[in-house]
Amino acid sequence: MILAFLNQKGGVGKSTLSINVAAALARQGFKVLLIDADEQGSAMAWASLRERSPFQVVGMARSNMARDTIQLAADYTHTVIDGPPRAQAIARSVIIASDAVIIPIEPSGLSTWAATETIAQVREAQAIKETIKCGFVVSRKIGNTVIGRDIREMAAQEGFPILSAEVHQRVPFAESLTLGQTIFEYAPESPAAHEIETLTGEIVTWNEQKELRRSKKTRSVA
After folding, report:
1. Within 10 Å of residue 69's Cβ, how many Cβ atoms?
2. Cα–Cα distance between 194 and 144 in angstroms, integer?
3. Within a 10 A sphere around the Cβ of 206, how many other Cβ atoms?
């Protein structure tokens, strides 16, 4: 699986999700690659704080990264891409390289409105590579606020599924990244770690169901 976290708005938790979902996959024994496709280089900066990482991290913030990503991913069980905000050419290449695109949206209309640009790019890419899946994940949610509940209805209007798992805005996420740690190293028993485990499990199941449907469709055509 090549999985990208992407939204044209910055600050919605793409790097937090990318690093920690990669860590959750590595904890399950998978060989994992994390590609930092954001020119800000947050994932690369995080990796530079460590002597060793539970997964490989490479930087590839360029508009022609799709082919190299697919070639690199062949040596790994799962590849996670930390996508860029605003850089449309790189974002298009990220989408083309991916099997699944997850759009983080926070409890703010701004991130949902910014996501419409990413959605348009996904739909353009699906015309070339129809197997690309896309869905939303609620990120940086603050408690059980009204706007936190309403965000699902706002996103559903775009026509892509919204994952059941939600990730809250929690201090341990910021603290762990600042120290060059994953949430599982910094606070393994915390609600934050549990949220990442739940999200990762749902993403893996989502992808497996997609592959099963594709396999059945292929057999029926044959």
Report:
1. 23
2. 17
3. 17
Q: Does position 87 have pLDDT exceeding 90, yes or no? A: no
Q: What is the mean pLDDT of the segment spanning 127-138?
A: 89
Encoded tokens for 150: 């309403």
From 12, 11, 68, select the one nearest 37 (Cα to Cα): 68
Tokens of 40: 């800000």
Sign of CA dihedral 218, 160, 7, 54: negative
CB 155 within 8 A of CB 123: no
- 136-173 pLDDT, tens digit per residue, is 898 888 877 665 666 667 667 777 888 989 999 999 99
Largest Cα span, the chain = 53
**What DSSP string describes 105-163?**
E-SSHHHHHHHHHHHHHHHHHHTT-TT-EEEEEEEEE-TT-HHHHHHHHHHHTTSS-EE
Calpha distance 10→84 (Å, rounded): 8
33 close to 55: Cβ distance less than 8 angstroms: yes
Give the DSSP H or E segment for 44: helix 42-48
| CA–CA gap between residue 121 and residue 118 (Å, rounded) | 5
CB 22 within 8 A of CB 55: yes
- DSSP readout, 108-119? SHHHHHHHHHHH
Whole-model pTM: value is: 0.90
3-state percent helix, strand, coil for the chain, nearest multiple of 5: 50, 20, 30
Give pLDDT, residue 140: 87
